[in-house]
Design brief:
- It is a single chain.
- The chain is α+β, with helices and mostly antiparallel strands and 237 residues long.
- The protein has 2 domains: 2-85, GMP Synthetase, Chain A, domain 3; 89-183, Ribosomal protein S3, C-terminal domain (Ribosomal protein S3 C-terminal domain), CATH 3.30.1140.
- It is 46% helix and 24% strand.
- The strands form 2 sheets. Strands 5-4-7-6 form a 4-stranded antiparallel beta sheet, with helices on one face. A 3-stranded mixed beta sheet has the order 1-2-3.
- A hairpin with a 7-residue loop joins strand 4 (127-134) and strand 5.
- Helix 4 (92-104) runs antiparallel to helix 5 (109-122).
- The longest helix has 36 residues, at 201-236.
- The radius of gyration is 33 Å and the shape is extended.
- The mean pLDDT is 83.
Length: 237
């Protein structure tokens, strides 16, 4: 049970760090974090659309983040590096924050959902799903789902490749929730088999002609040897 408790506490700590960074780096276009432990300390990679806002002037912001993570979350010797998001439309955090900001500006939830879904599919995603929940049109809370493409719900591909993110905003009717799932274009599925192409036929033909020529040369050499032995026998007689 001690091992199970250790992994649970580590997962809870990672979730708390993720939520803290999402609130702190909202203006920088926060896109997730990866945490890995090394012999020298804890290596933290922050993904953002605008890395300059994460680093700050002269590295001031990133030093503040390092001290906060070490004091508040008990992270041992945090070493923070910032990575820029290459395609923001394929990042679930960015898409969820864009839908949330659109709802805050007063855009209709259906328009915001379909707009974000079209952006994700145009970027090359294999599948996407956006769920907006809350008091959408009436006093009773409900949810609306926007889906496109191929998005498995279970199995190894769903656990390994699907990118997930959630965002919450406070509006006049109440709290709205946005959940985003994206299947990236580089995902590999076990049911999709690639058949290897056959080698070109020219190489096989050249090999066959070489074998035929070698077989033809062998009887000619044998006949020449027989003629030489006959001549030797005639001279001796």
């Amino acid at each position: 049970m001690a091992v199970v408790k250790h992994f649970i506490t580590e997962s809870v700590k990672k979730t708390e760090i993720d939520e803290f960074l999402q609130e702190k780096l909202e203006r920088a276009g926060y896109g997730g974090v990866s945490i890995s432990k090394t012999p020298l300390g804890t290596h933290i990679v922050i993904y953002a659309m605008r890395p300059g806002l994460v680093i700050g002037r002269g590295g001031e912001t990133i030093r503040e983040l390092a001290t906060t993570l070490e004091e508040k979350f008990k992270v041992s010797n945090p070493q923070i590096s910032v990575s820029e998001i290459e395609i923001p439309e394929l990042n679930a955090y960015v898409v969820a924050s864009r839908v949330a900001s659109a709802l805050q500006r007063g855009i209709h939830f259906r328009r915001a959902g379909f707009w974000a879904l079209n952006q994700v599919t145009d970027a090359g995603a294999l599948g996407a799903e956006i769920i907006i929940s809350g008091k959408l049109r009436t006093e009773r809370a409900r949810f609306e789902k926007f889906r496109a493409g191929y998005l498995p719900k279970c199995g190894d591909a769903a656990l390994k490749y699907v990118r997930k993110a959630e965002a919450h905003i406070q509006l006049k009717p109440g709290i709205f929730g946005i959940r985003v799932k994206i299947m990236p274009p580089d995902a590999k599925f076990p049911d999709k088999i690639q058949i290897a192409e056959a080698p070109p036929l020219e190489e096989e033909k050249t090999e066959e002609t070489a074998e035929v020529s070698s077989v033809e040369e062998e009887p000619e050499e044998a006949s020449e040897e027989k003629e030489e032995t006959k001549k030797d026998a005639d001279t001796t007689s």
